[in-house]
Amino acid sequence: MFYQLPPVGNPINLSSAGSDDMLLQLTDSRYQPHYYASGTAALAAAIIAAIKLKNVGRPEVILPAYGCPDLISAAVFAGAQPVLVDLEADCPWMNLAQLAEKTSEQTVAIIGVNLFGISERLSQLRILAERVGAVLIEDSAQAFPGSSGVCVWQGDLVILSFGRGKPVSLLGGGAVLCNKEKASYSELTRLMPEGEMRARSNMLAPVQFWLKAKLYNGMINPRLYWLPQSLPFLHLGETRYHPLSEIASMDKERLSRLATNIKAYQSNTVGVQNKLREILAQCDLDKYGITDLPHLCKIPEQQRLLRYPLLVRRDARDELYEKLSRIGLGVSRMYPAILPEIDGLEMLKQQCNFSEAKSFAERLLTLPTHAQVKQRDIDHIGMIISG
Questions:
Q1: SS3 for 37-50, per residue?
Q2: Which residues does residue 84 pair with via DSSP β-bridges, in sequence order?
Q3: Structural contact between residues 116 and 169, judged by C-beta atoms closer than 8 angstroms
Q4: Strand, helix or coil for residue 175
Q5: Strand 31-36 relative to strand 81-85: parallel, antiparallel, unpaired?
Q6: SS (H, E, C) 253-293
Q7: Start-to-end CA span in the chain (Å)
Q8: Domain range annotation of the chain
Q9: CB atoms within 10 A of CB 21
Q10: Is-contact 182 228, C-beta < 8 A?
Q11: CATH of domain 267-386
């Protein structure tokens, strides 16, 4: 009970150094950043820009049927109709055939999600987006390059989130990166609604941020994580729909620490996820009907994952989850259902035919890849999976 790994959770570095433009120095100079109060606000701003660029009567955005409800929050705030697409069988990628069927002249954007850090097949999504003059938005809230100069972003617009549990976490904040190599770059930059944002003013903000970060750093310690988990009002790990109420700018407390935390993230290695990959290769995966998703998707060893995802046979998933969670190994079932089945998203009920996404949701387990995972934790995971 008193040892519990969080599913995700890199500590926040409170040093203030560098400037916001170091985001690109540390990642990819092809992009121009625009900063927002959250990843959801950043996505909403990107969709607004895409709507203004195409100017159609009933704008639609295409996105996967399995994912974070914040995708819907951003689309609704921006005034676009979310159009859901099923997943490919046993994969975190959108079904290309169904995507092609649902793309139309009303499509202003296609949102490709780099789920868990596994890159979507953006080159194929781009073909479909260009066919109808839509913007390709790459949702990279769960993916961030693991080292300077190693980046595979391909979107016209790339969405980053610095919220709790993200690769680079500041307990809030987000960004839209505009691809300067695209012909539409200057127009998209002009349309970013930063001038419409309300900048928050709060004299206590520096102290509040410092206290929240200190508390967060303490609570993600495996010796203490059981405490917030035992408090139901915190809703840790729950998937909830929260409508977006405004687009605001990223505060200076977080912005001034962004470069420092990017450096801290990139200084970590991919050792944990590669050790998980190695131990899974030695396990009898047939016992629980396990599919190793990073292996199936041919993820390079140097590509950073936020979580290590597995698909488990339906009748064995919950049993394996209980065995791993009983000894505090940071296992998670992630989002519990497809988007139309999430409370508060009744607006999507009429959309159907997402059998593969539903199967994905019912079989998914994720393992932690953060720096607090020790070799003994990895060994325990291997022993439990092997039976």
A1: CCHHHHHHHHHHHH
A2: 63
A3: no
A4: strand
A5: unpaired
A6: HHHCCHHHHHHHHHHCCCHHHHHHHHHHHHCCHHHCCCEEH
A7: 22
A8: 267-386
A9: 13
A10: no
A11: 3.90.1150.10
- In percent, how much of the chain has pLDDT > 70? 88
Q: Are 222 and 3 in contact (CB under 8 A)?
A: yes
Q: Regarding predicted confidence, which is higher, 14 or 268?
A: 14
For the cut 80, the answer to whether the pLDDT of residue 301 exceeds it is: yes
- Is the pLDDT confidence value at 43 over 70? yes
Residue found by looking up tokens 């120095």 in the block: 25
For the cut 80, the answer to whether the pLDDT of residue 90 exceeds it is yes
**In whole angstroms, what is the distance from residue 377 CA to residue 232 CA?**
26
Residue tagged 């930063």 (tokens): 194
Look up tokens 């930059």; give the residue. Answer: 189
Q: Average pLDDT, stretch 345-352?
A: 91
d(CA 295, CA 336): 23
User: Which tokens hold the place of 347?
Assistant: 């607006």
DSSP H stretches of helix in the chain:
22-25, 39-54, 70-78, 96-102, 122-131, 185-191, 205-219, 226-229, 252-255, 258-267, 271-282, 293-296, 314-326, 355-363, 375-386
Confirm if 226 and 1 have CB atoms less than 8 A apart: yes
What is the pLDDT at residue 22? 59
Mapping DSSP to helix (H, G, I), strand (E, B) and coil, where does residue 7 land?
coil
Cα separation, 17 vs 162, whole angstroms? 17
For the chain, give the percent of residues with pLDDT over 90.
67
CA distance 239 to 159: 20
* Strand-pair category, 81-85 with 107-113: unpaired
